[in-house]
Fold:
Amino acid sequence: MHPRFRSTIISIAHVITLTAFVFLFLTVPAMSQDRIKSMPGYEQYSKMSPELRGAFVSGALNVRWAEDSKSFEYSYDSTRYRYDVGTLQATEIEEEESETNRGRGRDRGRGRRPARGRQFDSVVSPDETLRSFYRDHNLWISNADSTDERQLTTDGSEDSRIKNGSASWVYGEELSQNTAMWWSPSGTSLAFYRFDESGVPDYYIQMDQTKLQSTIDTEAYPKAGVPNPVVDLFVYDLAGGNTIRMDIRDGGPFRGDVVGYYAYNIKWSPDGSEFLVNRTNRHQNILEIAACSPQTGSCRTVVRDEWPEIKPIFPHSWGYPENIGN
Structure:
């Protein structure tokens, strides 16, 4: 056979093979889709699927109390309301009138939001004369115009993996905690987070992957079975210049079975005599709302909610549940 003729036959064979492969690649999914349509219940599903989205309306409300505790705001069906506790009446309000937009978010801050998993890095006092802010793993305060800066904590650093006035990434991501410092209503005290991430393994993320040179973002991130960052709450008294640690674990150690392993959703009481904190164990089957005294550091349980015993279903070879209490 002539070599040129043989080459032509081989090329034709390649084209036929490729065409057959493309045909199978395109027709197999289509055949699978056609098979789905013949399955029992598909006709009813096609009929009902457009109705499913509006078939259920949640009655859950995300409520925010006013500073005087006489009313609260909530959103329902894309409308903002204010409910007056005294009159038992709800009034529709504009978003601009919302207490959320008037004072609570100041410089928490200047119309911006923190990045995912992060916290506001500065907060202005209620009377707008002072400003607290996070810098170099430590907590600072200054006048509202940023003059007369003072450093309140000194143990925070990148080397020690301790941070004051900020939170660990998992708090922002998993617990929606976007604040880490809280002025009392009178502006005379400042509560703040302290996190020790020295025992938390690092997690590495490759960044800028579309650029010529990528970078690495390193984050302390606790996966299941490894230590979480040690969380503490402190209150700084401006008049006396002293800092008091809150006993959020009631004298217990930082251990998974101790309530206070997680502490979040921090809020001052309207009169500033206490501040409230949600605290749970690592299982999160026990939740307490505790009220802490900024003068003594002691905390009392206001509400306790406990789920029945949880039966772990994971193989012990995964290090769970043996390490859950560590």
